[in-house]
Design goal:
Elements lengths: L5 E6 L3 H12 L4 E5 L13 E3 L3 H10 L4 H8 E7 L9 E6 L1 H13 L4 E5 L2 E7 L2 E7 L4 E9 L8 E4 L2 E4 L11 H8 L4 E7 L2 E3 L9 E3 L22 E5 L2 H8 L23 H7 L7 E6 L6 E5 L7 H8 L10 E3 L2 E7 L17 E3 L9 H19 L13 H12 L23 H12 L4 H23 L4 H10 L11 H5 L6 H4 L3 H10 L3 H12 L1 H18 L17 H10 L4 H5 L6 H10 L3
Parallel strand pairs: 1-2, 1-9, 2-6, 9-20
Antiparallel strand pairs: 3-5, 4-5, 7-8, 8-9, 10-11, 10-19, 12-19, 13-17, 13-18, 14-15, 15-16, 16-17
Helix pairs in contact: 1-9, 2-9, 2-11, 3-4, 6-8, 11-12, 12-17
Length: about 625
């Protein structure tokens, strides 16, 4: 039934599995995607949206490296917003509402059109391991499929258990069975495993809602997109809406707390801190009389609606009664109730920085199996696992992103160095170099790397280089060109900035906080330059950021250079920490367990002090 041996087998067809498959295949590996249901490749299991705070930056990074998530998002978007525009550009985060069915369809079709990809629909029940190395998978039908590497992206399916009130049943997602066998095998081999929880809200019939009493939430008037390629710009958009819970809703929900698996002890695992269930919200924030509910359409034509902010595992009758007391939901009809799901994960400190496991060679983990939450976090791990699985079997150097190079680098470093005991999601606050890691420059940071990997076309690289060159020339234009005081003073008066008494270089006045590119375009010299060079909005935005934030950017680059000096100090894989008696006991224990690859990584491990790092540097001859 199968080729004698695949290069790479990817287990699971969610966001991580889809990106892993695309990356490995596009780099030239013969790849098999094994999934329990070919109809749910790229399925949006929870909300029908991509991006958001820090997550939007990750999607842009995936796209810049040659991944598919940005393209799929643009092709299936129904609304686009750039969040945090009132803050600095390091905080700007793109977000799109998507047509759930079209999103999954686009993923399936893109993978089918990718060379080197085969598909098989069945459950993987175990791994084939020989001499400490994975050599394939065994399916639930007992078929052995051989490969040089395996990427596990099992999502919430490993021993998944769904909770609705006092009812519970096995499942990896509503309407789909759980995956069994893999956890037990890995634990027998020596892996540590744990349990996590996540939840999802009810889905309802939009025809039963009264939108007239809700607050419309339209998209941006000039919507952007995720991919740096020529994907379609939205011409029309669908509105979302906002409403609120109330004291009455909270009281109705509390009536079901005694039957809630969260409060009666049935659910013992930890859920996502930053996406709590509605019962958790009213329990933890008892002083609040109302919480926001976002009413999100599931697509262009379907009447199904996602009730964002009402994630719950309460009994279905309690969900229904409480939701009918929400403004605009008085006559609501359910498509399905919300539920919680518990599933197995493997603490990610058991991984190398390539996402390869430390215990079994050529076995990679990506996505929720590593304790993360979110489509974007999963997709980025899948991309990196697919890349590194290919590089490993073809005996090439691994591909690792540093913390100052990408949010993806921050994500993976956090996971393998610090681990996580609750579902991990990305935030801008987790990135100490976020001024460098903006959504607008992901192509400048990562497209050359994607090109070296063979994931980026000549055309994409040329577009990036043109943007970089034009932006640099435009910034140089501001540095070299002077303004006339009679031209600039009316603008300065208009924005409430002090006027000038003599001419000077445009760069200085443009760097003022209230002066924008639109103001500068009113100067004839600037307008003529833009028109003569046919500069697009991306170049204008890039130049403005470079002018206004040059000081901050330069400072972060200097800090990053210090980090790189520590990254250059490698720690041998077999280094014996026990022999260094001057290390603290906690440091020895943590270093022995995590086995960091560099001094820089060692310095970020909780419990390893600066004095421990100094001792290590001495022992390494530095």
């Amino acid at each position: 039934m199968f080729d004698k041996e695949y290069d790479i087998i990817v287990v699971g067809g969610g966001h991580a599995g889809a990106e892993a498959t695309a990356a490995a295949a596009n780099m030239g590996s013969k790849t098999l995607l094994v999934t329990m249901n070919l109809q749910t490749i790229g399925q949006m299991s929870c909300n029908p949206a991509m991006g958001g705070i820090a997550k939007g930056q990750i999607v842009r990074e995936i796209d810049a490296l040659g991944g598919y998530s940005g393209i799929v998002t643009d092709r299936s978007a129904i609304q686009f917003k750039m969040l945090n525009k009132s803050k600095g550009p390091a905080m700007w985060s793109p977000r799109a509402q998507n047509d759930r069915m079209r999103f999954a369809e686009e993923w399936r079709l893109m993978l089918e059109q990718t060379e080197n990809v085969d598909f098989y629909q069945e459950m993987v029940a175990g791994l084939l391991v020989a001499k400490g190395k994975v050599v394939g998978v065994r399916t639930s039908l007992g078929l052995d499929i051989h490969s040089k590497a395996v990427v596990l992206t099992n999502g919430t399916f490993l021993n998944g258990l769904i909770h609705i009130g006092e009812k519970q049943f096995g499942g990896g997602r509503a309407g789909e069975r759980a995956a069994t066998g893999i956890t037990e095998q890995l634990v027998d081999i020596g892996f540590d495993s744990g349990r996590m929880k996540t939840g999802t809200p009810p889905r309802v019939d939009g025809r039963s809602l009264n939108y007239d009493v809700m607050i419309p939430q339209p998209g941006d008037s000039n919507p952007e997109k995720f991919s740096y390629l020529d994907t379609p710009l939205l011409q029309n958009q669908r509105d979302c809406h906002m409403t609120h819970t109330s004291k009455e809703v909270h009281e109705l929900l509390r009536e079901g707390f005694d039957r809630s698996p969260m409060f009666n002890g049935r659910i013992k695992s930890i859920g996502p801190r930053y996406c709590p269930s509605i019962e958790d919200k009213i329990h933890r924030f008892a002083d609040k009389d109302a919480h926001q509910i976002f009413v999100e359409p599931e697509g262009w034509n379907t009447v199904e609606v996602y009730v964002n902010g009402f994630s719950t595992s309460l009994p279905e009758d309690v969900q229904f009664k409480a939701l009918r007391s929400v403004k605009g939901f008085e006559k609501v009809k359910f498509f399905r109730p919300g539920y919680a799901i518990e599933y197995d994960y493997f603490p990610p400190t058991q991984l190398k920085n390539t996402l390869e496991t430390k215990l079994i060679n050529n076995l990679y983990f990506a996505g929720q199996i590593n304790g993360t939450t979110g489509y974007e976090e999963a997709a980025s791990q899948g991309l990196m696992a697919g890349i590194n699985a290919h590089l490993k079997i073809w005996e090439k150097d691994p591909f690792v992103l540093n913390r100052d190079e990408a949010y993806i680098g921050v994500l993976i470093d956090d996971l393998i160095t610090k681990g996580t005991e609750e579902p991990y999601r990305m935030f801008t606050s987790r990135a100490e170099y976020r001024t460098l890691l903006r959504q607008d420059n992901a192509d400048l940071r990562l497209t050359p790397k994607g090109y070296e990997l063979g994931l980026v076309s000549d055309e994409r690289l040329r577009r990036m280089e043109d943007k970089e060159l034009q932006s640099k020339k435009f910034v140089d234009f501001f540095k070299q060109t002077s303004y006339q005081k009679e031209d600039i003073n009316p603008i300065l008066e208009e924005v409430g900035s002090s006027t000038v008494t003599q001419s000077d270089k445009m760069f200085k006045v443009f760097a003022r906080p209230k002066v924008t590119m639109n103001h500068m375009l009113r100067l004839e010299k600037v307008a003529d330059y833009v028109q003569a060079n046919k500069l697009g909005t991306e170049v204008l935005e890039q130049a403005e950021i470079q002018v206004k934030y040059s000081g901050y950017i330069e400072k972060e680059k200097q800090n990053a250079d210090k980090l790189h000096r520590l990254e250059a100090v490698k720690i041998p894989e077999n280094f014996d920490y026990k022999k260094i008696k001057s290390l603290s006991y906690e440091a020895r224990e943590k270093l022995e367990s995590i086995r960091p690859a560099t001094i820089s990584q060692a310095s970020r491990i909780s419990g390893v002090s600066p004095s421990d790092i100094s001792v290590l540097l001495i022992f390494l001859g530095r």
